[in-house]
Design brief:
The chain is an alpha+beta fold and 534 residues long. The chain is built from 16 helices and 23 strands. The strands form six sheets. Strands 1, 2, 8, 9, 10, 11, 22 and 23 form an eight-stranded mixed β-sheet that branches. Strands 13, 14, 15, 16, 17 and 20 form a six-stranded antiparallel β-sheet that branches. Strands 3-5-4 form a three-stranded antiparallel β-sheet. Helix 4 crosses helix 16. The two termini are 29 Å apart.
Length: 534
């Protein structure tokens, strides 16, 4: 319990969850509202702490400072085109307006400092309004010592939690955003944080949500909210029953925070909320590591992915949400095994880029001993190891190798979009989320994403559909008010982030849409609570 001065358990606003909702909590507390944040675990940040903290905020001040000419109307055209769902247009308009305003407000607080543009191309390059410069902004890195003891409250990065990676004296991405938001929230003097406090039920009186029942340190407690409750507790990616019911996946491969079991979603449903998009997730390819679990993988620079028939089926460098969706779609719809699929590459590719560890280093023994990485002297032997037909794999590799010499992927057009082009020059390195490294160029090949697979030994790694959270949830309006099936709002109840159904529908428009949505609609919820744009 931090900064708690309310002995009667009564607050103006209660925020359930401490990821993106922590920024909404700051917005409320900065307006003088007594604001309580309850967090189920012992650390704040949720899945946001695992992320790069990109925010897709068209027309925002950081883009202008970077010299990016960005017309919000172009962004609106882009969103309309890629989402292609008129029922979400009010949400889109609210989002586009809120993102710019929120950044302006946050940058007035010294804890948030100045956000920075990151040149990440948008994911649908052919859609009108798209820009190769991207519209994504990021928080500045944060020296750990500036947070002092508060740093211990911030969830560690995924590489730290899973592999003991040393983050060093400066954190970036989601950890920086959460650390800054935590400090800003607590220093308003109106903010209270309770960790190890899990939502159980919403309290309803005369049709209005007026508080929450929770379990805190093993005891059942009730907190009242005089103005509103904001549900921002992530998705249901870790709830096996819900995942299997709606998505045919168990959630064991998720990269979402371990405690995201849909508590807020279930509580909302219990008081009459409608839902939408429960069959959807922010799917990503997952590279299976020696512990048997995947890590979010993007930017495949070489080799190919093959299905159970030994055939290539996708542009392997395609934006991650699109590639992840394609794996799931083809597995369900074709009768050919795509879960898992196999990433096939050779020694030249291995030497250039590595795989889950730096290039030019031998694979750690646990990769080979666990079967996460398979190695063979011939393609025929590799085909046996991954249980695919050799004749099909051989044919697929020969076809791909022919593209290497022309530089044109005639089957899936790898290397032809601004997103693909970015990976001509950088290698994403998942063991260190702060750093990509400059790509080594292999001379003689016009497209560095299309090196031939012809240098023994040969390797295969395993790719499965992972996710960075579910994207279906409680149905809301453009003010983040939770709706009943008849379209009426549930008084006093709001939702944002992955607790709410995504404003972008079934697509992922650009880097930072999930976290951008969480922050933008948390902001809009608070504005509605205070009665306008104050």
């Amino acid at each position: 319990m931090t900064n708690d001065t309310n002995s009667d358990g009564s607050y103006d606003v209660i925020v359930v969850g401490s990821g993106g909702g922590l920024v909404g909590a700051y917005v409320a507390a900065s307006r003088g509202l007594r604001t309580l944040v309850i967090e189920k675990t012992g650390a704040v940040g949720g899945t946001v702490a695992y992320s790069g903290a990109g925010l897709w905020f068209p027309g925002s001040a950081p883009l202008a400072r970077a010299g990016i000419e960005d017309d919000v109307e172009d962004a609106r055209t882009y969103l309309r085109g890629v989402v292609a769902d008129s029922s979400r247009e009010k949400h889109q308009d609210a989002y586009l307006d809120a993102g710019r305003r929120l950044i302006d407000e946050l940058e007035q607080n010294p804890w948030f400092q100045s956000f920075m543009h990151g040149p990440v191309p948008e994911y649908y390059a052919d859609s009108p309004g798209s820009t190769p410069a991207g519209r994504t902004v990021f928080p500045p890195p944060l020296p750990v010592d500036e947070l002092g003891e508060r740093f211990d409250l911030v969830r560690r990065s995924l590489p730290t939690e899973r592999w003991g990676f040393d983050e060093g004296p400066v954190v970036s991405g989601g950890r920086a955003l959460i650390g800054r938001a935590l400090a800003a929230f607590l220093e308003t003097g109106n903010g209270t944080l309770r960790i190890n406090t899990a939502l159980q039920d919403l309290v309803v009186e005369e049709g209005r949500v007026v508080g929450v029942d929770a379990v805190s340190e093993g005891e059942r407690v009730r907190f009242r909210a005089e103005r509103g409750v904001l549900l921002a507790a992530g998705g249901f990616e870790r709830d096996r029953e819900l995942r299997e019911r709606h998505q045919r996946l168990s959630g064991e491969w998720s990269n979402g925070a371990p405690a995201n079991t849909g508590d807020a979603l279930k509580a909302g449903i219990a008081v009459g909320a409608d839902t939408d998009l429960l069959d959807e997730a922010w799917f990503v390819p997952g590279l299976v590591r020696p512990d048997g679990l995947p890590v979010f993988h993007t930017g495949t620079r070489g080799g190919i992915w093959v299905n159970g028939a030994g055939e290539r089926f996708v542009n392997e460098t395609r934006p991650y949400d699109q590639a992840g969706h394609e794996i799931v779609r083809l597995h369900v719809g074709t009768g050919v095994r795509h879960i898992p699929c196999h990433w096939v590459f050779d020694q030249r590719q291995f030497d250039r880029d590595g795989i889950g560890f730096p290039p030019a280093e031998p694979p750690p023994a646990e990769w080979l001993e666990s079967g996460a990485l398979k190695k063979a002297d011939t393609l025929e032997e590799l085909a046996r190891l991954i249980d695919v037909p050799f004749d099909a794999l051989d044919r697929t590799v020969k076809e791909f190798n022919s593209y290497a010499h022309t530089g044109v992927d005639e089957r899936f057009h790898r290397g032809e979009t601004p997103w693909d082009e970015m990976f001509q020059h950088i290698v994403p390195f998942p063991a260190d989320p702060r750093q990509n490294f400059e790509a080594t160029v292999v001379s003689g090949f016009p497209n560095q994403l299309l090196l031939p697979i012809d240098t023994a030994p040969y390797y295969a790694a395993t790719i499965v559909p992972s996710d960075i959270g579910t994207k279906g949830g409680l149905k809301t309006d453009e003010h983040a008010r939770v709706l009943r099936p008849d379209g009426r709002p549930i008084a006093g109840l709001y939702a944002t982030g992955n607790t709410a159904a995504a404003m972008s529908g079934r697509v992922y428009p650009g880097a930072g849409t999930p976290i951008g949505s969480s922050l933008a609609f948390g902001y809009l919820a608070v504005l509605d609570i205070v009665g306008g744009s104050a």
